[in-house]
Amino acid sequence: KTAEAALKDVFADGFKIGAAVSSGTIRTQENLLTRHFNSLTAENEMKFENIHPSEDVYAFGESDTIVDFARRHGMAVRGHTLVWHNQTSDWLFQEADGRPVGKGVLLERLRSHIETVVGRYKDDIYAWDVVNEAVADEGDELLRPSKWLEIAGPDFIAKAFEFAHEADPTARLFYNDYNESHPHKRDKIYALVKSLLDQGVPIHGIGLQAHWNIFDPSLDDIRAAIEKYASLGLELQLTELDVSVFRFDDRRTDLLEPEPGMLERQAEVYEAVFRLLKEYRGTVSSVTFWGAADDYTWLDDFPVRGRKNWPFLFDERHLPKSAYYRVAQLA
Ligand code: XIL
C-alpha cells in the first residue's frame, strides 16, 4: 500500500486506532482526526472534576461535544475515567461541613456518579477505563495511598467495576495504568487484576497507558508485559501512547525543534511497537495515542517546565513524520 495509507487502515478488521482529544482539538485537528483515526478518548472532559464539579451539578457540555463529533464521523469512543486519585472533586470525599465522609456515603456517591455518566453514554461508549492508576509505583504496597483507599479500603476498585457493569452491561471494562511495562509494577498490576478476576469482578481488559520515550521501556519489557497480562485471558489495549523524545526527567528546555537523531530513533521505536501490536493482534485490540500531532501534547511542560516535546506520528503542521511512514509501511 502507499505511503498515504490512513493509519486506521494499517490494521483493518476492527482494530481501533484512537486519539485523545479536547473540545478544542476536534476543531484544530479535525481533518487529521477524521482521516487517520477511528476512535476517540476525551483527554480531560470526562474526568470526575470536569464532569461532576459539585454534588448536584453534572457538566456534560464538553464531553457531549466530543461524543457528538465521534458519532458524526462514525468513530468509536473510549471513556476515561471513572475512578482516579487525580482530577477528582474534593466535595466527593467530604460532608457539607468539611468532615470526611464514611465508606457507605463514598461508595453510594460513586455508584450514583457511575450510573449517571456511564448510563448517559451507553449507546456511544464501548469501553471504559473504570479504575485508573490505583497501583503504587514503588515499594511493596499494592495500592497507592489515596482518598479512595483511605476512606473505602481496597473495595472501591471492585465496587467501581460492579457499578459500571450495572450501568452498562455491554461496555468493556478496563483497569488502566502507567509504568505498566516496568517489571515490578507489571507484577503488581497483574496481581491486582488477578485478584479481581478471582473474586468474580466484571473486568474485561487491561489498559497499558504506554507513556514511553525513545529510550525506555525496552521492547523486551513491553513484550513481557503483554505476555503476562494476556495470560489472564483479558483484552489488552494501549490507551495513552506517546513516545517522548526525551528521557523522563531530561531537563533540556533549549530545543525549538527535535534533533534528527531523536526523530530517527522515535521512528524505530514506533515501527517496533507496531510490529509487536501486529504480532499480538488477537490480544491487543486497540491503540490510542494521547493526542494526534505535535502541535499539542500534554508533554509540553510535563514533567519539565518549558520543555517542548514531539511525541506523535504527525508534526506541528499535521504532516507525516518518519515514524508515520515506518508504521504505514506495515499495512
Ligand atoms: C493528563 C492530561 O493529558 C492533561 O491535560 C492533564 O492536565 C493531566 O492529565 N495518565 C492519565 C491521563 O490517565 O488522564 C493523564 O492525562 C496523563 C497520564
Automatic annotation (TrEMBL):
Q: Does the keyword Repeat belong to this entry?
A: no
**Residues of the GH10 domain:** 1-330
Q: Which reaction does it catalyse?
A: Endohydrolysis of (1->4)-beta-D-xylosidic linkages in xylans
- Name one matching Pfam family: Glyco_hydro_10
Instruction: Tell me the route in metabolism or biology where this protein functions.
Output: Glycan degradation; xylan degradation
- Gene3D superfamilies per the UniProt record, alphabetical: Glycosidases
Q: What is its EC number?
A: 3.2.1.8
Q: What is this protein called?
A: Beta-xylanase
Organism in which the protein naturally occurs = Paenibacillus albilobatus
